[in-house]
Amino acid sequence: MTQQESTSALSRPLLAAVGLAVLLAIGVATLGLVLGTGNQSEDVPGRTGPLALVSIDAPDAASQPCTSLIEKLPVGLPSGKDMLPRREIASPAPPAAVAWGDAKHDPVVLRCGLPRPSELTATSQLRVISDVQWLQLPGSGSSTWVIVDRGVYVALTVPDDAGTGALQDVSTTVRDLLPKQPVKTEAR
């Protein structure tokens, strides 16, 4: 065997091993891109298009405070690290209702002009955010927060994973627009 033949014979297995390693690395990278990292949000069917809301009793929905509030609400609300745009509400849309959402998040829904919540009592635990008092009504997967210290009752339904940004932004708008009033813990 000549010296050239032994070098060439030794290089073939080395080249094959290097080539196999490169192909393996490319395969792993491609698989990672195709399958993703597992923590990215996925679009969920039904979260696009107009949002259907059921009508509920809202005797003060046509009031001046509700009309003013609906006009002044932000076009986007924070949900975790994301900003939710206003979402169209399907016809027939309930009066004084606004929604925010996108394909990756459950919607945040505001309704103005509701009756006093029966859960509001003298011993209710209220949360103050930006000088606005809220009553939390926990639900399954979301909570409805009701503003109880203004001339109208305003409910904001927020998914549990949305954080507090939506409450903060709505509180600021309400604080700056609607005059504060004493909390009425008894039915009128």
Automatic annotation (TrEMBL):
Keyword vocabulary terms for this entry: Membrane, Transmembrane, Transmembrane helix
Pfam families for the chain: DUF3515 (PF12028)
Regions that span the bilayer: 14-35
The protein's name: DUF3515 domain-containing protein
Taxonomic path: Bacteria, Bacillati, Actinomycetota, Actinomycetes, Pseudonocardiales
